[in-house]
Amino acid sequence: MAPPPEIAIPSTSISDEESGKPYTLYNITLRLPLRSFVVQKRYSDFVKLHETLLEQTGIPPPQPLPSKHWFKSTVKSADLTRERQVGFEKYLRTIAESPDRRWRDTAAWRLFLNLPSSSTTSSAVSANGRASNIAAGAADPATWLDIHRELKQLLHESRLAISKRDSAVDSGNTTAAEQASMTARRSAAKAGTFVATLTEGLRKIQDTGKLGDGELRRRRDLLSAAKMEKEGLDRLASSKISSRDPINRGTAVSDTASSSRISKPSGRILGGQAVETVKTKELDNAGLLLLQKQEMEQQDEHLNELTAIIQRTKKMGIQMDEELTIQNEMLSEMDKDMTRLDAKIKVGKNRLRKLGE
C-alpha cells in the first residue's frame, strides 16, 4: 500500500484572469515518494469536493470546511485568507491521515488532488491537470522550489537512463539500449518543459516583487545550470548507439589496476591519471567536455561576483577615508576653538585676580 501524500497549503494567490471577478486560489503542495506537484483550488472547489464525498460515502468527512462569510472577501481580507488557508490544510490532512479510507478511496478525492488512478482515462486527466497547475504554481515563490526539485529529478532520471543505455551497449543488448535511450530523451524533453515553465514563473515573481534581488539571482543561476545540463543530456541521448570493445577496455582497466598496485605514488602529480568522481562517472567524452565548460562558466560567474564585491568594498573604503578626513578636519577646528577658549579663560582669571587685589 502506497503511503499517503504529504499535503500542505504554504501560500495563496489571486486569480489573474482579466475577465470576471478576482478570487483567491489556494496552492496545495503534494509530496509523493517520487515526485511533488502543486494543485490550485478555490473555495467553491472545496465545497464541491465536500458535497461529493458526502454523496459518495454517505458520511461527512471527519473535518468540517471553514465557514463561508457573506460580508467579507478573501481578496481584500488577509486575516480571512489565512484563516481559510489553515482550515483547508487541516481539512485535507485529516482526510489523508484518517484510519478510515472511505473518503480517500473515492474518485472525487483523487480527481480533486490530481492523484494517479488505476484507470487510464483518470490518469490522463490527472496528468493534464498537473501540467496546467504546475504552470500556475511556478509563479509562487514557495512552490517554485518544489517544481525545481522535480526538474532535478527528471534530469537525474535522464542521466540514469543514459547510463543504462551504455551498459546495454557494452553487453550487446541493442533492444534494451534503444529503450533506455528513448527513456532518456523523454525525461530530457519533459525537463525542457519544466525549465520553460520555471523561467516564466520567475519572471512573474520578479514583476510582483515577492523576492529580493539576491534570491532572484540565485534562482536564475539554478535555472541556467539546469538548462545547460538538460542540453548536454539532449546531446548524449540523441547520439547514435555505437558498440564498444569490452575486451580491450577490460584489458586497459586491468593494466591500469595492476600498475596502480605496483606503484601508488602519494600526493599530487602533474600529468597523472585523473581521479573518477560521482559527477564524471556516468559521462562520456562529450559529457566531460560539457561538464568542464559548466564548471568554467560557474567559476567565471563567481569571479564576476567577487569582482563586484571587491569594487563595492573599495568604494566603501574610499567613502570611509573621505569621512575620516572630514572628521579629522572637524577635530582640528575643535582643537583650535578649545585653544582660543583656554586663552580667554586665562585672561579672565588674570583680570579677576587683579580686581581682587
What does this structure look like?
Residues 251-263 have a biased composition (Polar residues). GO terms for molecular function: phosphatidylinositol binding. Residues 4-119 form the PX domain. Residues 293-355 form the T-SNARE coiled-coil homology domain. Residues 243-264 are annotated as: Disordered. The chain is mainly α. Among the domains are: 6-114, Phox-like domain (PX Domain, 2-Layer Sandwich); 131-238. Helices cover 67% and strands 6% of the residues. It has 9 helices and 3 strands, in the order βββααααααααα. It has helices at residues 43-57, 78-97, 107-112, 120-137, 141-171, 174-208, 213-238, 246-262, 285-356; strands at 6-14, 24-31, 36-41. The protein has a 3-stranded antiparallel beta sheet, sandwiched between helices. Helix 4 packs parallel to helix 6 (174-208) and helix 5 (141-171) runs parallel beside helix 7. The longest helix has 72 residues, at 285-356. It is flat and about 120 Å long. The protein starts with 5 loop residues before the first strand and ends with a helix. Mean pLDDT is 79; it is low at 118-131 and 243-268.
